[in-house]
Amino acid sequence: MNMEARIRGIGMTSHRTRLRLIERLRSNGIRDESVLQAMVDVPRHCFVDEALASRSYEDCALPIGEGQTISQPYVVALMSELVVNSGYPDQPVKRVLEIGTGSGYQAAVLAELVPEVYTLERIRSLSHKAQRAFNSLRIRNIKSRYADGFDGWSDQGPFDAIIVTAAMETIPDALLAQVKEGGVLIGPVGPQATGQTLSVARCFADKPPRIRQVANVKFVPFLRGCG
Ligand code: SAH
Prior knowledge:
28% helix; globular; alpha/beta; seven-stranded mixed beta sheet; binds S-adenosyl-L-homocysteine; Rossmann fold; two-stranded antiparallel sheet
């Protein structure tokens, strides 16, 4: 899908800065070519306010209003790579649930990589803004909803992967219950004050999940209820 062609007003400069970002992601260890391509194709500047657009291809988190942030591109690429690589040859990742739509950028990157993306956001204005970005970019394979993600999205589950983009003190059981047998839940786990560990919990029936710790990260908190 060539999103570039759908958006007007993007000069060569943003394309060049985007390619520079990709080189940086590559040198920081992102290997999956489909993920790198998605990071080139999805226009991050369409998910931040115009005043910050010129900084969209720097590898840093940026404010998106309501005290929330769009994640650093490296973290988006890393989490996307973990999602894509979590499948099996006979069971590729098809349906992914994201908790914490925020700007919608992570969902848009995932939508390039898997057939179906579901995303939940507890702050109404962010959820609506993200939906407008999906519409204007004509991204059709994301279903988004303004709702508390604490209980997941049970009538759409189970999912091959759930990705939580806010810091969890512990992983809610309700979310683990919506991961398919052998699937994964990926997200930052740990206290707000000290930062978190990006963790991959692989789920099996009748057994506790097997947890792998991937990197130290810092996310905004996962909060209960709608804002
Ligand atoms: N994935 C986002 C980054 C999100 S920041 C992006 O690509 O821009 C984390 C988001 O999680 C915030 O918008 C916050 O409001 C949301 N959030 C926190 N707790 C939540 C919950 N219980 N349910 C849904 N969203 C939640």
